[in-house]
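Supplementary Methods, section 5.1.

A reviewer requested that the exact input to the structure prediction be made available. We therefore reproduce it here, unchanged from the version used in the analyses.
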Amino acid sequence: MPHLDVDDVGVVSTAIPDSTTSPSRVRDPVATLKQILTLLTESQKWIRKFRGKYIVVKLGGSTLCDDAAVGNVLSDVALIRVLGGKVVLVHGGSKDLSQKMREEGHEPRFVEGRRYTDEKTLRIAKEVLGTISKTLATKLTELCSELPEHIVSQGRSLSRLLKGCSCEALQQLIYDHLGKLTAELPKLCEELRASGLEKTCHSLRQVFDSLKTVEKPNQLNQSVSVEFLVRQVDKIGAAFARDVSERRHVGVPLLPSRDRLFLRTERMMFTTADGRQTDLGFVGRVVGVDETTMKEVFLRGGLPVIPSLGYTTLPRRNVRRRYQLLNVNADTAAANIAALLHAEKLVFVTDVPGILEDRHAPESLYTHITASACRELVRRKVIASGMVPKVDAALEALNSGVPKVHIVDCRSRHCLLLEIYSNGGAGTEIVKDEEGAD
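The structure derived from this sequence is encoded token-by-token as follows.
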């Protein structure tokens, strides 16, 4: 899988600059625009592939500690929902939990990186994870309401980028891509219309109708100028914003309660590296998901936000209570949920670029790797520390039928959009041994 190295064109993390990016900060605006046009032609097949499909996104504890990163990821989640993807947001909160435990004089205990959960830890976990779920849901709701304004802002950024190009360079760029763009336009419009983005589709068609008679670059001189293109970009951005403003997608925290056992779990024993079975206390693994509740959330235009907590049913002889709350490893929970929902993708959002051969060298990133290659990297201790549970969960998901698992960097703007809707991707893609890259 070829990696999208957008730093080559001077824009950090994405081909589309943010609202603060000026043409002077972009080393080669024409190359950036070329990349944007390429993404536009690539996106339609991915929009079609993932519309109506489950995509499980797991937010790690390190990500949750970075407000800007959380905002970046949730903005992408909102847009994926607009394009028809059924995003399920799963989160942990290990760092916050450990901090809260220490504040209450209860030192965290781990067994080979897995948290031991006693009754006091479980009580604190319920409080901490419930707070995180509600915070994420509130933030997601706010971002969804701000999404139209954000889209218009992105359009203005693109307009400023256009103004940094010469008219001749833009005309040649359009001519070079016109044939492919025109050929892909009907497919792209079909996918946009299927996602409910009718005004965006109409605006795109109007722009291309004004260009479709062009046969030579010099024919653009009479009708196409920088000012003309800026106006068209502004129109498309405004149309997209109007489409989005008519759709409200909000976060819905799915917290475990006596009346709603969203994640069904069972107590588990942990097998240590030397093969010993170890009791981790009130810790379980996910064995079922209340998909009915999830479907209701999507039908209401919401997005499920799920903490790494579940319930197990107690024996009938227990007259005091019917259920027991269990703590669940968030990486494993995300993998289990993805498998049970037959998700098309599982994405781990972390604070590293992905799987690296050398953790001090970002250029050593594996953009595509097989399960057996991952196991070899674990054996060589190239994959170590906190990355091991994620890779273990990724391999478990693959073995359970999830087609692909991804590890992306929360610090990279639009990491989810690029990983899901472009050929190049934005992190590490993990597949089963018999699978090849797209």
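The chain has 14 helices and 14 strands. These observations are discussed further in the main text.
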